[in-house]
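One record is set out below.
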Amino acid sequence: MKSPTLPLHKAQVERLQAQTPYKIFDDNPENETYPYVVMGETFAKDWSDKSKPGQEVTSKIHIWSQYPGRKEADEMSDDILQALTANTLDLSPDFRITVGKMDSWLLILDIDGVTRHGVLEMRYLIEEL
């Protein structure tokens, strides 16, 4: 069995860079102006059947904003969700997404009382080809 997490990450980043105006990072940047997006944690578990190996992968995308209120973070979440679900992400030649959807959205006010931190959780069922 191969891991689909790196091809999924690459496809997500490429899609978000092509279809949203946001700065996309793999790690929290230092001294970066808001808003921005950080590709976060992944969790994968076996989803194989008798005919093919596969995995269920959860991918977290962190949204950071200092706009007063929730408007900017909610708009960012909507833009990202639309970009990732309008068409299936291409993971070829090794994998194929059979299901890709939003699992959850959480928006919190950070401890500084100014920064909004959103966590968009995407869930994918991925078959190995």
In short: Residues 5-19 form the longest helix (15 residues). The beta strands are 24-25, 36-46, 54-65, 95-109, 116-128.
